[in-house]
Amino acid sequence: MPRFVTAESFGSVSRDILRLKRPALGGLRQNISSKMASTRLRWTDNDDGGTPAELMTKLPFRRVGVVMPLSFQQGGAEALFQHLLRHGSERLHYFVALLQDGPFVEASRALGYDTAVFPTTHLSDPENFARTVGGLRCWMRDKQLDVVFSWMLKAHFYVAPAAAFTRIRTAWFQHGIPINGTMDRLATLLPTSAIFCCSDHGRAAQDQLAPRRKSFTCYPGVSFPSGEPIQQDVARQELGLSPTHTIVGMVARWERWKGSHVFIEAAKVLLAEDRKLTCFLVGGAHPLDLVYAAEIHAQVARADMRDRFLLVGQRPATEIPLWHSSADLIVHPVTSPEPFGMAVAEAMCMGKVVVASALGGPEEIIQDGVSGVLILPDNVATLAQTIQELVRDGDRRARLAAAARLRGRSFSIEAFARRFEDLIIQTSLANLS
Length: 433
Known about the structure:
It is a single chain. The chain is an alpha/beta fold and 433 residues long. It folds into three domains: 5-58; 62-221 and 413-429, Rossmann fold, CATH 3.40.50.2000; 232-408, Rossmann fold. It contains 19 helices and 15 strands. It has a seven-stranded parallel beta sheet with strand order 5-4-3-6-7-8-9, with helices on both faces. Strands 12-11-10-13-14-15 form a six-stranded parallel beta sheet, with helices on both faces. Strands 1-2 form a two-stranded antiparallel sheet. The longest helix has 17 residues, at 126-142. The radius of gyration is 24 Å and the shape is elongated. The relative contact order is 0.10.
């Protein structure tokens, strides 16, 4: 690794160097060195040597604005945003802009990031839209940004016009699998240098929209406890679960397409045949699908599964590893294509066998029959049968679990951050004149 660099004002120097042709670097070394001296740089020693000017030719240090439309935890996209900020970067200088006031503001500032807030209402509010676009444009220029990255689709509706007629590159994260919906089509019409997608499935769908933009697959990363995995008996004791029962669980927000209702129906079959089986469903209601949450509660009540099917509800992120560790199997029976499947990768990181629908991201995460099992979607009988077979075959389950742990940990936060940085640098250097 090159030495670690920090600076309060580094953008002008890096831009000058990146625009120079290689023969000109030597002749301008003195000029660059004096310019760096005025920027309050701090260099941390490392074994690989090299002067600051030489290091600058190797380290494309860029100033990157990250615009996040939400300031509250709701799902995987928000968790990934926080993971990136906590990880930081040795090659990029991040500036954060939030389009909503809330917990993420103080969290970002506590991590040391220069953080601005531009409160938005609705895209249909012309006065707020104009004020937000103008504020973002001033912010981009004031921070001398090279790239502005919209963390979610909504942010790009503000960022694209704010960056218009400037040399600032823009990119945005497609966290879903676009199905030619209005918002996806409109966002794709807006100028951008690149679109990052969560999976190859998502990228293929995005590439079907016109005009076709440059796109990349950037797999999200998931966090997992360092060191040895949490012992199953320890996790069960802490959660108050049976130490002797076989436990099958699911961790997902209660959205219809996530397939919680499919799991509940399969559990009815399994619990009727095996009295030493317990199931749990960890997750909370989605604010845009509260009707489905009510249906989930009613479905469990009608089945009269009593205390053997646990509707746990929303739990803190720090507690999720305990639930994963307590289970023998984890299921993810989505009924529509999954953009990625962070819950799948998280469970695999903990050494858990995952039974998932062969739709979207899980097909790319799970090696069927090697590190997990893929099944036909929306099929209660197939899900129940697959769970029964795995419960009865402990040796097969152990082999799959060992491979799952290795596979899951390949989707680390570190791997995501490196890929994200590489793509941002590539985007920043594109089409420079």
